[in-house]
Amino acid sequence: MKKIYTLLLMVVLISSVAFSATKTVVRETKGQGINRDKAIKRALADAVAQVQGVQISSGDYEFGYSSATADVDYKKDDAGKKVGFDAVSVQTEGSVLKTQIAGLVKTYEVLNEKKLEDGTYEVTLKVWVYDYESPEQTKRLKLAVMPLKVLKKGYRFGNYVMPPDQMSAKMAQKLSVGISETNKFSVLDREYIQEFAHNRDIMVLADSSVEEKAKLSKVLGADYMIVGTISEARLDVKERTSDTLGVTVREYNADFVFDYRLIVAPTMQVKLADTVNIRLEETSDVKKLVKDWKPENLDYRELADNLVAKAANEVVKTIIDRLYPIRIATVNENGQIVINQGGKKIVKGLLLDVFSEGKEIIDFDTQESLGTTEIFVARIKVDKVMPKISFATIIEGELSKLSEGLICRSKEVEREKLKGRKSDIKRTSSGGVKLSFD
To answer: Do residue 150 and residue 299 come from a single domain?
Structure first.
């Protein structure tokens, strides 16, 4: 396979400017070319590549080259034709491999130069390359919440209608906040990608310092992306007359449906696909979405905001449980158990079943791992929640069997079936009644 190399190199010579997050890295490189300038450019490109890395892409092209001058050579014994430029030949059939190098050079010094026997030049340079160092140094995977799709022109919550663009932005924001709080991902901002592109163009075209421009090469690519569609979000208020009481009562129910996928960004492989389907059919469940329940003056905006947050939390919980399940961080000498998650995802009183990992299960057809079996070890209860960790105590099992790294799964508490209950209807001083949903 023939190869073509396209070098994109920005070389800027400026005086030293102090900037906390931008540093220079010194590299010594050699370059060869048909003349002195070409040799210097080749050496500079090599220096930038060593600091910033190389981006390689390939594709199939019927015919392609990039040169100010090109010689086309037809041969009778050849099925096709060849195009030659700068001593690089590209066939009209096959793949073309592109190598892109982008970076900024502060200055360079020529250490040695000579003309070779074949007429080409060779130079040795000492090069100072700008390297922007992000203030957030982390090994966490990078996740981008992409702008979410909507299917309706508006989402009604009682007498309040939320515009579709606001619904999309609000759900994306809640997802970003929830994922950030898990401390497992570096969350990238993709909601304002157009604003970033505009700012980038201004920096490139305007007289911005080279240190500022150096940051542009460090716009992070995502390891994972969340994409999805909000197909339903609403709160219905229905009034009916009670035949028993002879009064008009209000009933509230809410719905939220969100289809989403977690995608491996480099390969576009779907890592997880799921649907959040929230259905609140009882007024008592809807009441939990607001701090102060006042049917005559209900804050529908607060209710809508909290319903979106509830849906976002379910998405976050599913993703984290799949990729980063809760684990025991350590067990203190006094019997206190520390787990590696906190924040809003963990609540005081939460029951967690602790498991050790057993045999790995391999898919017969694909030979891929399906996970491992889990063996119950103990049950713990969360006593205290911190922003990034939580503390728990054992309530079932043996403390001696607990160790760092064991998986913890939320224990679903079954509701006891009620054989009967006291009436929620209360008499008022005026002789009327007050119902539980009022």
So the answer is: yes
What is the mean pLDDT of the segment spanning 403-412?
Answer: 87
Tell me the C-alpha distance between 36 and 389, whole Å.
60
We report the CATH number of the domain holding residue 367 as 2.40.10.410
Judge whether 352 and 346 are in contact, CB under 8 Å. no
Query: What is the DSSP annotation of 165-206?
Result: HHHHHHHHHHHHHHHHHTTSEEEEE-TTHHHHHHHHHHHHHT
3-state DSSP assignment of residue 228: strand
β-bridge pairing 407-410 and 351-362: antiparallel
Q: Is the pLDDT of residue 377 over 90?
A: yes
| First-residue to last-residue Cα distance in the chain | 76
Pick the residue with more confidence: 223 or 278?
278
Residue 186 sits in the same domain as residue 308: yes
User: Across the chain, how many H-helices and E-strands are there?
Assistant: 6, 25
Tokens of 227: 């994409």
State how many domains the chain has.
3
The pLDDT, as a whole number, for residue 186 is 82
pLDDT, tens digit, 9 for 90 and up, residues 102-134: 567 778 899 999 999 888 999 999 988 877 555
Q: Global pTM?
A: 0.58
Strands 22-33 and 121-132: antiparallel
Instruction: Copy the structure tokens of residue 406.
Output: 């064991």
Which residues does residue 118 pair with via DSSP β-bridges, in sequence order?
Answer: none
CA distance 176 to 416: 36
337 token code pair:
């158990």
pLDDT tens, position by position, 223-233:
888 999 999 99
DSSP letter at 308 equals H
Distance CA 329, CA 340 (A): 5
Q: Is the dihedral of CA 381, 383, 385, 391 positive or negative?
A: negative
d(CA 316, CA 326) in angstroms, rounded, equals: 13
Together in a domain, 235 and 257: yes
Q: Residue 99 region, left (φ>0) first, then alpha (ψ -120 to 50), else beta? A: beta
